[in-house]
Amino acid sequence: MMRLPAARGPITAGLFERLAGAPADVEPPLVTPPCARALEDGDLQLALFVCYELHYRGFEDVDERWEWQPSLLALRRELERCLEAALEHAVPRPAPVPPHQVRRALNELVAHDEQQGPALSAYLHREADLGRFREFVVHRSIYHLKEADPHTWAIPRLHGVPKAALVEIQSDEYGGGHAERVHAELFKATMTGLGLDASYGAYLERVPGITLAVSNVMSLFGLHRRLRGALAGHLAALEMTSSLPNRRYATALRRLGGDAAATRFYDEHVQADAVHEQIAAHDLCTGLAVQEPSLTGDILYGAACALGVERLWAGHVLDRWRQGASSLENRVPQDDVMTASPA
Question: How many whole angstroms separate alpha carbon 283 and alpha carbon 336?
Answer without folding.
Answer: 46
